Amino acid sequence: RPSRAGRAGLPVGMLLASPLEKEESEALLGNVHGSISACLPCWQRMPSRSLHDAWLGVGAPATEKTISRGSGTSLRTFQRRSINDEGSSAPLPEQRFTLRNVTVIPDLKPDKLMTVVEGPGRMPKVLRYDMKELVMRGGIKTMLGFGTILDHGWYASSGLLRCLCVMALIVCSSMLLTIAGVAGDMSQLESLNTAPLKLLMHHVNSMTVFVTAQYVVICLGRWWAIRTLALQKVYDAFTSLCAVLATALHGHRWHQVRIQVQKYGFASMELLFMAARDETDLSRLVAEGLLSSREADFLQGQPVPWQRPMTLWSWIMRMTSDSMQYQYTAVSARGVVTGQCLQAIKGINLVTKYLDSQLPFAYVHLVMLMVTVQNIVLSLKTGVDMASSLAHHNFWMVLPEAAGCMVVCFIYQSLLHLSCLVLDPFGDNALAFSMEAQEGYLAASMLAAYEAQEECLNVAADGCLWPKMDVEIESSSDEYSDSFGSEVGSLSSSGSMPVPG
């Protein structure tokens, strides 16, 4: 083993063959990388990962030519490798996934009142609505429109109509039984004492109003928390991560890494929604180019669907960490990337906690029971009052009493039905979260961060700013590898390469 002083004058080939310690080799690698970067005109595309692998003897493919011992050996860079579906080493094929295509929200239908998004094979979802227009039109004019509680999709699929029919049957039965109880003598109904029934109705209604209002507030609070505290963590982490990668890994040679991070990020959101909907088929993600067949098979083998989006974020964290290490990025920037990945995982865990930790069953059952009892008591009271109105020949009071009973029962049942819809924000209804719209917004934010790097000013070592030069750098990695290897090989063989001390 030569000494440090002796190694200072050795050619690069001999240096690479010396059994250096890891700390010394990494430090000397940085010096050699900086020297070569300053000498060669193609320094912006120098693959430091290849030098690192060759130097430490780690990760070098067996099929590639490694750096031989001796002073007259040329330094060849390793080709970028990727694992295709069959597991063989080959360049990545042309990707079907493009960030610009994700920014286009499919089937976006704007209207004066609301904007509706229609996903592929799913029910349309309300993306946003105009509050001013809703107030101007009023509730009666818009109550039969899309997204309301009287919408045909919700109305037919729920038990709201059945409940109203049952309440109407109870009202009619109560009225007929009251009349039959006096054997048709309507004069006896004029002195009928309904005070106990009204007192019972007052007590039941006073408790039901408070309990139902609190229950609806809790359900809406959980819906809002899933959107702002859980999902927003994943969205913010994804956009922040891509913004950091756009600046820290802005070189052309990191293009595949950036694309793969985008694909994994969007695939993780798709898998998150699929896990919430109990969907297991990943063929659509493969068809869209977000996952390869091998990755889909691996994720399909995981027994718990919630593990799949977390797996993708662990891949993102490892891939970005390795890339930033090969780029010699500051440790603080790596910590930011790791923190964003962990934040996304925490957001997924929070979604799981909200969906799997429901409100106590006894509490929800008590609310349902109180609403049902209140509606039944109200229907009985309405039937008796209608019979009493008929006895007093107040025929004009019969219809308002029946309508009032139906309206109150309708409001209570609608609130319960609304709580069922907001408890499943990932379902296929008009109130569910629109995944397509969120992905479009995230893709637009990422695209802005990536395209901004093309016009960003270059900063020189002396602090001067230079406009970005229009240089064509789209040549293949093989051509670059050959030209770079020949230049470095000629320098090392002649012994004229400057080696830092």
From TrEMBL:
- Which terms in the Gene Ontology molecular function aspect does this entry carry? chloride channel activity
| Claim: Transmembrane helix is one of the keywords in the record | yes
Q: Looking at the record's lineage, which domain of life comes first?
A: Eukaryota
Reply yes or no: does the keyword Glycosyltransferase apply: no
Q: So where does this one cross the membrane?
A: 160-184, 204-225, 361-380, 395-412
Q: Where is this region: Disordered?
A: 477-501
One protein family per Pfam = Bestrophin
Residue ranges with Low complexity bias: 482-501
Q: Which UniProt keywords apply?
A: Membrane, Transmembrane, Transmembrane helix
- Protein name as it appears in the record: Uncharacterized protein
Q: Which organism is it from?
A: Alexandrium catenella (Red tide dinoflagellate)
